[in-house]
Design brief:
Strand order of the largest sheet: 2-1-3-4-5-6
Helix content: 55-70%
Number of helices: 53
Number of strands: 6
Radius of gyration: 37 Å
Structural class: mainly alpha
Strand content: under 5%
Distance between the termini: 86 Å
Length: about 1000
Amino acid sequence: MLYVQRHLHKIGSSITLSSASPLSSSQWFSFLRTAISTHSLLLGKCTHARIIVSGSAGDHFLTNNLLTMYSKCGSLSSARQVFDATPDRDLVTWNSILGAYAVSVDYNDVNAQEGFHLFRHLRASLGSTNKMTLAPVLKLCLSSGSLWAAEGVHGYAIKIGLVWDVFVSGALVNVYSKCGRMRNARLLFDGMRERDVVLWNMMLKGYVQLGHEKEAFQFFSEFHQSGFRPDEFSVHLLLNGVSELNEVEGKWYADQVQAYATKLSLSDDNWDTFCRNKKLSEYLRAGDNWGVIDCFVNMNGLNIDYDDVTLLVVLSAVAGTDDMELGKQVHGIAVKSGLDLEVSVGNSLINMYSKMDCVYFAREVFNEMKQLDLISWNSMISSCAQSGLEEESVSLFVDLVHEDLKPDHFTLTGVLRACSLLIDGLNISRQIHVHALKTGSIADSFVATALIDVYSKSGKMEEAELIFQNKYDFDLACWNAMMFGYIISDDSKKALDLFSLIHRSGEKSDQITLATATKACGCLVLLDRGKQIHAHVIKAGFDSDLYVNSGTLDMYIKCGDMVNAGVVFKSMSVPDDVAWTSMISGCVENGNENQALSTYHQMRQSGVMPDEYTFATLIKASSCITALEQGRQLHANVIKLDCFSDPFVGTSLVDMYAKCGNIEDAYRLFNNINVRNIALWNAMLVGLAQHGNGEEAINLFKSMKSHGIEPDRVSFVGILSACSHAGLTSEAYKYFHSMSKDYGIEPEIEHYSCLVDALGRAGLVQEADKVIESMPFKGSASMNRALLGACRIQGDVETGKRVAARLFSQEPFDPAAYVLLSNIYASANLRDEANNARKMMKMKNIKKDPGFSWIDVKNKLHLFVVDDRSHPQADIIYDKVEEMMKTIREEGYVPETEFVLLDVEDEEKERSLYYHSEKLAVAYGLISTPPSTTIRVIKNLRVCGDCHNAIKFISKVSDREIVLRDANRFHHFRDGVCSCGDYW
């Protein structure tokens, strides 16, 4: 009581100082832990009150621990009040309240029914559950004797893939054995990967209580041969259970058990240890890992001996806490006591370290074990496979075989998983397949599924089909594996055929089946079929399942139906980072980059943290809309959340800065990235090309080779494009021929396009035309369009006519072809031919693509078209344009009226040039940004010659750098000079 009073005094003192230094969640948590360990409801309520006063009541961590505190202190009503007052409940919150009902049901059956009601409500509202959910629900089943409910939970555990989890299967064994369903209990028990002494005793007790004495003694014999040591409980149970057998047989069994007890020196002196072990196991089955730890600490404090069973339970609990330091401490206790030499303890240590993703420590334990059993090998093989050490996993399997141990289905499943991720894993998998056929393990569902997975990932679908067709009984796991195999083999139609067959045969699908089916629809862009499967999902009650919803969301995104994607996304009660990222990616893929950025802000407000893929997608969105400030903010978040080391993120940032017109920052960032892959080099190379930095691009290409980076087809697109923008035709030819000669890369249409563009920009239009005609494949429309533009600049009417004819045959409704041809004729004073081209457009009802420019100011896009007066500040903008034009004329600017192809007076021609969209955007930039700020403008078409000339003068008189990105490249205007050297 004095201990509690001291903590109450501490709480009062801390609140007095809270305005100056408010307590953190961890400090409040220490008070709640004290309340739990001392069962002090008064201390718990006082702490709760202080948490509310301090403004920390909304903290999820504290809320969940308040629920646990009220549960442990026996106040279910208070726990329920906290739960009902929590608006955003996560899975831990639900698990905590279910645990509270599980504790209280012993004395109130009404609480059991309310607990079941909460579980149903959880599944409907949150969808996702885990083993910590099922443990208290199964305790509700046991305490209330609700066998029907336990069977329902069993079915649900099978459906969500948790039936073989040690906590869940152990709890189900307990329920079935205590309810007299020993056949069900035994089936589960035999299928479990991990079994401890407590589970063996649980089964033993079930046989004895039902009067199945012979089965009990046979089971005791199996227990003894399993490698585990029957304890006092086992012995007392059997000695009291022989009364119903005839005297001779009963005495023989009793003598055998008594001899075993004498041999192991079992006595009442160890009863305290047994009782404590039983208590530890109860905490573990209830999912109370910290309860196990506290109880173990208490054992040590009371000098109660512990044995291997104690450590097995404690290590299992530590694995559930994911506390590495605590695990090392328990490991030290095992070593100090010598119990680490026990095979079962060593196996538990391997299991603990494996679950904490510390395979190095698991392997150290494995290597130091004096004796190894099949469980040891299986645990290590599986751990390596799950930790990305596939070769190590296969090596261990080979060592196991050399030790003359017989692999079981768990061994084969673990090593096959490793083989599925190895480049040369197919040959080993085939040998394992032969072994499985010889030993009959092929009949095991896990082995068959693993083999199908291996063959699918290796592109050997015929062999996967052979295994699948030889399965006589319906096995949903194998069907799911086959469906997924077809998808990754780019045969999604067969995956949907399998799904239809499952549906027609009357077999039930699970969430994996449905998520895979929706993925297949997304791959085939079958929106209507996807909608049908979505309807089936709702009908089957899986519409609240996060995994299925994620698949449905992805399907709608791939089919371009962002409206229904949004509906599915909003229906998710708690979307995870994958769902948020899918939604963001969908917005980008469907051209709504602004919505992608908005969705990201909602994601952050919801408390979900982005990962590397999220950032890479968002940075791409910033690139697409050239939102430099947004990109910079994302860059800051990347650094803050320690995602900068990811190569995809780094490459995306370099690409973003280049596409947003800031090639200097792109290059600076490129030089600061340590891990350089081909994608990063290509991003920098293409960026330099877009900015017309031909010499720098060539130097980078040479540096790339000196760093041992082999150029690929994208690298050559970048270097050829750089040569084109810089007018380096001879270098373009050199690199073009080098592709096949030096690197064995055959030029594709993109490479020919770059070469043609380089020749066209250099005025060699006829030579470019010959390149197109000599290509091994038909020239693309974009290639002919670029050459036609070059013909217009060079005034080559004859070549222009030939190129236009080709373009008309490819895209008869392309407005650019008619406009360019008309301009070629008009520039050559062939007015009739120019008018005929325009008339042809009109006859075919072809509209010219409107030119527009935009500028991003304070994260808001402002778009302009020629003579645009729709902007709220139009009057100020037009006044600025007039002022601008007057100033630059005084500096020597002369309007280039030849870019006006209308038959009007020269003065009217000059005026019509004033209000082109790029000039309006530049004017707005000048009036809305501080002096010396760089102005960045984007135009959807090629900038006209007059605007290009005018902006050179504007940059000089305003003392501003102006970056203009048009359809061809970036133009950097400084002090009256453009970076393109008037070559674009």
